Amino acid sequence: MRESRVTQFVRYAILVLIMSLTLYPILFMLFTSVKSTSDLAYNYFLPSFDVFHWENYANAAPKVIPYIWNSVKVSVLTIAGILFVSLNAAYIFARFQFPGKHVLFSILLSTMMIPVILAFVPTYLLIRDLGLLNSHLALILPGIAAGLAFATFLLRTFFEGIDQALIEAARIDGAKEAAILVKVVMPLTVPMIATVSVLSLLRIWNDFLWPLVTISKDSLRTLPIGLSFLVDRPGVNQFTDMMAGYTIASLPLVLLFMVAMKPFIEGINTGAIKG
User: Diameter of the chain by CA atoms?
Assistant: First the structure.
């Protein structure tokens, strides 16, 4: 019994240590965002509870919010494009029979095996030749293409599990295929749509290299690129204002997680059960 308690204590101690190491960078960001430069110089690691310098947020917000808006715009339009194409493609692959169906689907899945870096230069040349550099279309169109295969694979697997009787009943009532997809299939697919949307958003929101190469105008930069150049902006303190900007930048994903957590987990569980 004594050995068992010692073992449990060691396990809990290790978990607490790991959790502390994981949370400390986040806490450091929050504490630093409300410090002054002098407070940071004399008390670098520990929080300062004497005075909170909320003006750091006032200084950082006007510089960070435009980048957040650009990221929201690119993410929403990209996810909308992914869902529009993948929902239709997945429904066709799941519910229709046509020559070459399995070959086409295999080709689609094979694109997931190609490392992104191998398509980097050809995609850049294509975007350049189309005259889309320094526009958000340079981020949206490749983002849609990059997310189609995975989204179509997940949605097709889910569509195949929907009872065919529901679809046949809608057809007997005279519903067209588009109406069946929108009014019958999609309401049953909300958890999987949420899963695809969240996974796509994380990929698009955190993308750094592609926006860095294709966007040079500051007014069009997305959040990761804008934050990397924040230190060079006039009137921005290198640490306190930057940490306030990083805190503001993290809020959209935190809010998204709070809203989409339940359907996202349901979609993950549904995919695991069907898999």
Answer: 76
pLDDT-derived band at 275 (thresholds 50, 70, 90) equals: very low
Residues in CB range of 252: below 8 A, 6 or more apart: 68, 71, 72, 205
CA pair distance 52, 74, nearest whole angstrom = 34
Q: Cα(242)–Cα(35) distance, rounded to whole angstroms? A: 11
**Beta-carbon contacts of residue 94 (< 8 Å; ≥ 6 apart):** 156, 159, 160
pTM for the full predicted model:
0.83
DSSP letters spanning 203-242: HHHT--HHHHHH---GGG--HHHHHHTGGGSTT--TTHHH
DSSP code for 50: S
Query: How many of the other CB atoms lie within 10 Å of CB of 73?
Result: 15
C-alpha–C-alpha distance, residues 73 and 89, integer Å: 24
Q: Is the pLDDT of residue 145 over 80?
A: yes
The torsion region of residue 4 among left (phi > 0), alpha (psi -120 to 50) and beta comes to: alpha
Q: What confidence score (pLDDT) does residue 78 get? A: 96
Judge whether residue 194 has pLDDT over 50: yes
Per-residue burial over 166-192, b if 16 or more Cβ lie within 10 Å, else e, is ebeebeeeebebeebbeebbbeebebb
- Contact criterion met (CB below 8 Å) for 269 and 102: no
The pLDDT tens digits of the residues spanning 163-184 come to: 778 888 888 888 888 888 888 8
End-to-end C-alpha distance for the chain, whole angstroms? 41
